[in-house]
Design a protein that fits this description.
The complex is a heterodimer of chains A (about 220) and B (about 450).
Chain A lengths: L2 H8 L21 H6 L9 E7 L6 H9 L4 E4 L4 E2 L1 H6 L7 E4 L4 H14 L4 E5 L5 H14 L2 E5 L13 E8 L2 E9 L6 E4 L18 H7 L1
Parallel strand pairs in A: 1-6, 1-7, 2-4, 2-5, 5-6
Antiparallel strand pairs in A: 7-8, 8-9
Helix pairs in contact in A: 5-6
Chain B lengths: L12 H5 L8 H7 L10 H14 L7 E4 L3 E4 L11 H14 L7 E2 L3 H10 L3 E2 L3 H8 L11 H9 L5 H6 L2 H8 L1 H11 L16 E10 L2 H22 L2 E11 L5 E11 L2 H13 L7 E8 L2 E2 L8 H21 L4 E6 L9 E4 L17 E9 L5 E2 L4 E4 L8 E8 L5 E7 L2 E10 L2
Parallel strand pairs in B: 3-4
Antiparallel strand pairs in B: 1-2, 5-8, 6-7, 6-8, 6-9, 10-11, 12-17, 13-15, 14-15, 15-16, 16-17
Classes of the chains: A alpha/beta (about 220), B alpha+beta (about 450).
């Protein structure tokens, strides 16, 4: 078989190859190493993406910041106050940001599904601690219907539970960045990597803090 | 249906088959059909229906006039071009009336009285020119003019049967015998005298209520009633050519106080399915104290509909977005939705503001590193657990705000959380976590 004929055959939409070529719909993550590992060379579109950080505040949001820039997005049930000055500095368009704070987990599940199905926000970020597999399945279908991405943050113990999400990432703090493990990756291979985070370049001060100028004065007083 | 004089006014086909006829006395009709179900005429409801139809008709012409208790006059000369032809316009009116469950006799004529008389004679009559009108009117009975019984008796006593003969009577004698106003009416009917009519002005408020035929607590059972009310409101808005920003709904219970709530809309609109889905979300989250007897609705604020379809994609997006916000607000409450805005203030907890959804602004860019998460209240933390990872950043707020003299550092916990900590100048030994870098 001639090489051209083979190439033409492989371009047939019915044929799917493991190490697929970059698709136009998948959005780059902003981390080249992660892009290389993902089958579509970016975050899959119309999918539920599970992020399982070992704890909050280890850099799980910074992982998403490059892909959230200038996108319409909704944050459902964030655990703390999303801090507007930091978001603005990261390039997030605050006019396109909707914060939803439902009163209970059931409402928050409903709100996520509504937003996903409406297809209005291209990205939805959700925080939910107690989610059943059936609920995850609903969210995955809603994300497909609305062609949006749902980044769902779940507590660390959920990493052992099965899930219908096509992409699941486990996150842990690392010495100079963020350790990321692909727990599940449909169409790709599981793997692990350490991603550099901007803040990790900061000078580490292991010594005790420089005393504030008023400190001796206040002691004296 | 029975009028106040105990005579039958209208009847259905089943009654007609039993030999009951219009105009019969109720007692006579009951002798023919003992199981006859009678409904009393409700003049007030009829008036209200006619008034709401007058508002609804505002979508077809700028000049609607109300003939009390009977009919609506629409000046359509100016609307023919917009609606392409008379038959098109009539079709639109008939379709609209059928949707609202009304039956009507339509007639067109060059004079208002002419149209009224033709409509009384039967549905679908139409005259485009005065000559045609004269021809159609000539054989009609004088009783169709709506004059009082005494005058009609006197006219028939002199041998006059139809309108043509009536109009042919000598003018002076006619005016002297039956009154100058009757003569004037004949002139107006035939287009020989001017017939100015007052235009109908819709009332500034819209309020309707509907008694349920049975008391219920189930939202599903109330749905048809709401649909009927919303459809009427929609018809009213079509006539006014505007939308609304909210619907005030009151559910009337027997003994308990009424349940009142408001359906808020993000933009002026008049879409019944959208209202129904909002209502559905709202009723699902409510527990009613008692069965509902009656539903009242009131249009809260009339507003012109926005200019639509200027840009295809962003506009469509905006409409979907508003529909989504309405749906979310109906179930979660309006306070659950917000946007974020930066605010120029030195004190970190003052440097952001909650806004309405979609109103957020990136006003003041902050060059120094700030955490993505802010804790609602700074949490005290022992210094031994912290590992500082940056130099000092001193933040001092103005005396007019909250007193704020703090030294901020970036730090890391033993679990690898990257946090933002400070100590207050007033209490230099106590460290607080203020945010997470996330």
């Amino acid at each position: 078989m001639k090489p051209q004929a083979l190439q033409a055959l492989l371009r047939h939409p019915g044929i799917w190859r493991g190490a697929a070529t970059p698709s136009l719909t998948d959005q780059r993550t902003g981390f080249a190493e992660l892009d290389r590992q993902l089958p579509g060379r970016g975050w899959p579109r119309g999918a539920l993406i599970e992020l399982i950080p070992s704890r909050l505040g280890i850099g799980e949001l910074q992982l998403l910041l490059p892909s959230l820039r200038a996108q319409s997005q909704s944050w459902v049930a964030p655990p703390h106050i999303p801090y507007a000055p930091a978001l603005a500095a990261a390039g997030i368009n605050l006019a396109e940001l909707l914060i939803v704070r439902p009163r209970n987990p059931a409402d928050s599940l409903w709100a996520m599904e509504q937003i996903l199905r409406s297809g209005v926000a291209s990205h939805v970020l959700g925080w939910h601690d107690t989610m059943q597999t059936s609920a995850l399945r609903r969210l995955q279908l809603a994300a497909e219907a609305g062609a949006c991405r749902l980044f769902l943050f779940r507590p660390a113990h959920c990493v052992k539970q099965p899930s219908p999400a096509p992409l699941r990432l486990y996150l842990e703090p690392a010495e100079n960045g963020l350790y990321l493990r692909l727990v599940k990756c449909r169409g790709g291979r599981p793997g692990a990597m350490i991603l550099p985070l901007s803040d990790a370049h900061a000078v580490a001060l292991h010594s005790s803090p420089a005393p504030a100028s008023r400190r001796p004065a206040s002691r004296a007083a | 249906m029975v009028d106040t004089g105990q005579r039958l006014l209208t009847l259905n086909a089943a009654a007609r088959r039993r030999g009951v006829r219009g105009g019969m006395l109720l007692s006579a009709a009951q002798a023919l059909a003992p199981d006859l179900r009678c409904l009393a005429r409700q003049p007030h409801a009829e008036q209200q229906a006619l008034h709401s139809l007058a508002t609804w008709a505002g979508q077809f012409t700028s000049w609607v006039s109300l003939v009390p208790t009977q009919a609506l006059l629409l000046e359509i000369g100016g609307s023919l071009k917009l609606f392409k032809s008379l038959s098109c316009l009539q079709q639109r009116i008939r379709a609209g009336l059928a949707q609202l469950d009304y039956q009507a006799a339509l007639a067109t004529a060059p004079t208002p009285l002419g149209a009224l008389v033709l409509a009384r004679s039967g549905d679908g009559c139409g005259a485009r020119t005065p000559a045609e009108l004269h021809r159609l009117l000539a054989p009609l009975a004088v009783s169709l003019l709506g004059w009082d019984d005494r005058t009609l008796q006197r006219i028939s006593a002199v041998g006059v049967r139809n309108i043509a003969e009536c109009a042919a009577l000598p003018r002076a004698g006619f005016a002297r015998r039956y009154g100058a106003d009757k003569r004037l009416q004949l002139d107006r009917l035939l287009g020989q005298a001017a017939d100015p009519r007052p235009a109908y002005a819709p009332p500034p408020r819209y309020q309707r209520s509907l008694e349920l035929s049975f008391e219920t607590v189930h939202s599903q059972a109330m749905k048809p009633a709401f649909e009927r009310l919303f459809l009427d409101l929609h018809a009213d808005l079509l006539g006014r050519d505007c939308g609304i920003l909210g619907i005030q709904i009151k559910l009337v219970h027997g003994r308990h106080p009424d349940t009142a709530f408001k359906l808020g809309l993000q933009s002026p609109n008049r879409e019944v399915p959208r209202w129904m889905s909002l209502l559905h979300e709202r009723l699902q989250g409510m527990s009613l104290p008692a069965a509902v007897r009656c539903i009242r609705i009131e249009a809260v604020e009339f507003a012109a509909l926005g200019q639509r379809q200027t840009q295809l994609w962003p506009q469509m997006h905006a409409e979907q977005r508003q529909a989504l916000l309405e749906r979310l607000a109906a179930r979660l409450g309006p306070s659950a939705l917000s946007g974020l805005s930066t605010h120029a203030a030195p004190c970190p907890e003052q440097a952001w503001r909650k806004t309405d959804p979609g109103q957020g602004q990136n006003a003041a860019p902050e060059p120094r590193p700030r955490p993505l998460w802010l804790l609602p209240q700074p949490a005290a933390v022992p210094f031994a657990r912290l590992q500082l990872r940056s130099g000092i950043e001193r933040i001092e707020g103005g005396w007019w705000e909250q007193d704020c003299h703090r030294d901020y550092y970036r730090a890391q916990t033993r679990h690898g959380q990257r946090i933002w900590v400070f100590r207050d100048h007033a209490r230099p030994d106590q460290w607080f976590i203020h945010g997470l870098f996330g």
